[in-house]
Design a protein that fits this description.
This protein has 328 residues and is of the alpha/beta class. The protein contains 12 helices and 14 strands. It folds into 2 domains: 102 residues, Enolase-like, domain 1 (2-Layer Sandwich); 200 residues, Enolase-like C-terminal domain (TIM Barrel). Helix 1 packs across helix 4 and helix 6 runs parallel beside helix 7.
């Protein structure tokens, strides 16, 4: 029996506005790929990202282009060999994993040889704003063990760092500049981050313009995000970064994410598993990659006004493994 493909665009309003150095958004627009084989179906969700030249329309079109190959039994390995990493491949790859698990009446964690996944402590992200706005949000979440907050503006980041730390004195802090710092303010900002006990700084400089990180002394570990997509990027990141942020919309799916994690660990990088702003369907496969990671940033659904149902179970800072009805 030939498989069939459905591609749908879904919209999830964000609770308020989510702002980073590159701009703001009020809704998460996702593309959901569903692959059916008889009575079985598998789903995968991706979040097209303009920073990487993606639009909702271009990603949906990319998936439709391989509809015949999917119908004729395209495998995950063939997908990886013939399709570029990115959001479209992520949706298809995760749908294929979900379909295989359903057809075999097994869970994806069993298919990948993983032990039963355990609940994880995830960050709570604070979007970019004035120091006063960010302090109020940090105070609201000050009981969380880990807070991640956005910076990356030409002025005011020192005040933002101080405001968040003052409002959440007991939380571990992750600072995300989203490529917004420059060579001229890099060392000063890193020094300030260190003085306020920041645990990790994500992507301080633009991807492709971060070679200077190899020569800058820093006591706070640096994490590559926009500079890392797949295993092929790792060689250039050694000496510049101490950690890498693995996101399935960059790797092109669970398959590459698992390989990337293993290779990054072999090379001595600490692991962060992150996400775009999406629903629980996008977080579910990333949850498996996040098992054993040093930093987990899978709070996308917590930023939404309403998640899909069924969704992941969040209890305070804990996120629980996905039920099979959701994915995997």
């Amino acid at each position: 029996m030939k498989r069939s493909l459905t591609v749908e665009v879904e919209r999830f309003p964000i609770a308020g506005t989510f702002r980073i150095a590159r701009g703001a958004k009020t809704e998460a627009v996702v593309v959901v790929c569903t692959i059916r084989n008889g009575a079985f179906s598998g789903r995968g969700e991706c979040v097209p990202y303009p920073r990487y030249g993606e639009t909702v329309e271009s990603v949906a079109a990319q998936i439709h282009e391989i509809a015949d190959a999917i119908a004729n039994g395209l495998t995950r390995q063939e997908l990886a060999e013939s399709f570029p990493a990115g959001a479209a491949r992520n949706a298809v790859d995760c749908a294929l994993w979900d379909l295989e698990a359903k057809m075999q009446d097994r869970r994806v964690f069993q298919l990948i040889g993983q032990n039963t996944p355990q609940p994880l402590v995830t960050t709570q992200t604070i979007s970019l704003g004035t120091p006063e706005e960010m302090a109020r949000e940090a105070q609201r979440h000050s009981s969380r063990p880990v807070l991640k907050f956005k910076v990356g503006m030409p002025e005011g980041d020192a005040e933002r760092i101080e405001a968040v730390r003052t409002a959440a004195p007991n939380s571990q802090l992750i600072l995300d500049a989203n490529e917004g710092w420059t060579e001229s303010n890099l060392e000063e900002n890193l020094s300030i981050a260190s003085s306020f006990g920041v645990a990790l700084v994500e992507q301080p400089l633009p991807a492709g313009k971060d070679a200077i990180l190899a020569t800058v002394s820093h006591s706070v570990p640096l994490c590559a995000d926009e500079s890392l997509h797949t295993r092929s990027d790792l060689a250039d990141l050694r000496g510049r970064y101490d950690a890498v942020n693995i996101k399935l919309d960059k790797t092109g799916g669970l398959s590459e994410a698992l390989l990337l994690k293993a290779e990054a660990e072999r090379l001595g990088f600490s692991i962060m598993v992150g996400c775009m702003v999406g629903s629980s369907l996008a977080m579910a496969p990333a949850f498996l990659v996040a098992q054993g990671a040093q930093f987990v940033d899978l709070d996308g659904p917590l930023l939404l006004a309403k998640d899909r149902k069924p969704g992941l179970l969040y209890e305070g800072a804990l996120v629980h493994p996905p039920e099979s009805e959701l994915w995997g």
